[in-house]
Amino acid sequence: MRKIVPIGALALALTAALSGPAGAGGPGQVTTPTLTGFASLPAATFVPGSEPSGSLVTGSTNGIPVPFADQPVQGFSGIADNGDGTYDVLSDNGYGNQANSADFLLRIHRLAPVFRTGKVDVLGGVNLTDPDGHVPWKLTRDDRVLTGADFDVESIVKDTFGGYWIGDEFGPYLLHFDRAGRLLSAPVPLDGVTAPETAVRTGATATLGSSKGFEGLAKSPSGRYLYALLEGSVTGDTPGDLRLNEFDTKTGKYTGKRYVYRLGAANLAIGDAIAIDDNRFLIIERDGGQGATAVIKRLYLADKRDRNRDGLLDKTLLVDLMNVANPRRIGGFGPTFTFQFQTIEDVVVLDEKTIAVLNDNNFPFSSGRTAGVADNNEWITIELPRSLQPDKRIFPAQGR
């Protein structure tokens, strides 16, 4: 049985001092994407004194007993940089589907990696709630605390007031929360796109596969626009073509502008999408393999200016996450580091040449690092050979 690790909040100032890329030894000039930092949060990490969870979990749990006495800190599907060595990281719907996640509380965790120790501190977080009744249909809980049976939250950006815009897969919906996790307005649907979970509730015809909603959510450097990227193709679209939809945060409506990101193959999926300037995005593309069966885990640079006029975002491979140089043997790994997880769903730009990438460990199901052992939440930093030339407005003001 895996040791249960309780959450302990260390002094934030010390954490911040140790947690940047320099905490892993500092980046230098490289000629290929190179690992500069590694930290890991044990799989069996729980929010102490929370609520039982996992009572509906079935199937192989990699030796982790269910149900859990508390809420797990897991399933990281989106990340937002606070600029002070801490990050707000979003947990997704819980245990993989609507039917088994009614006792998983949707939550944003505040985390801080400490690369000198290889650990991740959990400093707190907020549950997502709807106290003012903005969701017009019946929720799972009468106290209006949101669960994995209500929404499948998969992507997150911060608004200009410290709150959050979150992309959901069950609608798909855009959800706007304040910094305390309280829903500020009704879920915003996407015209013409309906996931099966919403189709069952409303009687509409599903036009999207299950769990294929807003996996990526990017914010323009000004904060005015959001770009919500579907994980799956809409009925009638070319298989493997994903819609990137522009949303105006000032009007609270979609603008009608839409772009197309084409996967390398129709059976692949995206894991995250973030903006680095007004035109370019970083997009994670992956297969469904893990461990020995993992092949495609890639980070692309995508440009909406469509210079070749083929109607698609221009794609350039930035990092092959299965082939990252590791000359300093960081994390105890060999000279080539592989991020061999089934789902990799978090990327954030730390500076013009450094990115951080996190996996979604699908606790307790995924075992990509070691067969039969539940995956930890791993957090890596990678130095790039060349500057991304990002818009400086994408970085939080404090600590930069």
From TrEMBL:
Keywords: Signal. Residues 1-24 form the signal peptide. InterPro entries: Phytase-like_dom. The keyword Kinase does not apply. Residues 71-363 form the Phytase-like domain. The keyword DNA damage does not apply. This is Glycerophosphoryl diester phosphodiesterase. It comes from Actinoplanes couchii.
